[in-house]
Amino acid sequence: MNSILSEKLAKASVDARYLLSRGYNREAVVRFVGDRYLLSKEERLVIYRGVYDPITALIHRRKRVSRDFIQRKTLAIDGFNVLITVESALSNKPLLLCDDGFIRDISAVHGRHTLSDITLSALTALANHLSKLNPKQVFFFYDSPVSHSGDLAKLTYEILTKYNVACEAKAVKQVDSEVLKSGEIVASSDYAIVSRANYVYDLGGEVAKELNPTIIKL
User: Fold this and answer.
1) Among 169, 165, 142, 137, which Cα is nearest to 155's?
2) Its pTM surpasses 0.90
3) Residues 188 and 200 sit within 8 Å (Cβ to Cβ)
4) What's one Pfam family the UniProt record gives for this protein (predicted)?
């Protein structure tokens, strides 16, 4: 993972910010700077998830809420997004402190997830954290096309209720839309959700910080 701290990645980040600020497509920007600096797949993922133009970064920052804001409000959670961030912290994988203030993992996980002891530990850490926030209701949504997402939803419900968190957990086809319409506040670091939400709590990042992970700022 030393490549994350490389000089070429730092330079690529500067170029990417500039191009994004000029309105270029994110995928095209990552491809361009990735090819120019001969970045690895992992390094390109760092750019894709971590680098934002200043205006977008500011908009995202203004949507973020503190833990006190959640008291007695409904919280809709992007399940896999949050869970994988916490699992990464528990697995001693580095996390990114991104330009918009969110903490994101750099796990190249697309449409797959494996239930493990780490999953149980991550859900327990999430339940413990949520119990201290005193939300009115928590909704956990997982992507139903992912294997065992129904089992994961059931496990999530069981663990959160043990911590006296009022919770519903389910596997759904369209997580983004369910999250956005179900809570006064959303918990996700996914761009597609953050960009459309009014209030966002970086649940994955806040729980991860409690686990003392390696957090890298570009």
Assistant:
1) 169
2) yes
3) yes
4) DUF434
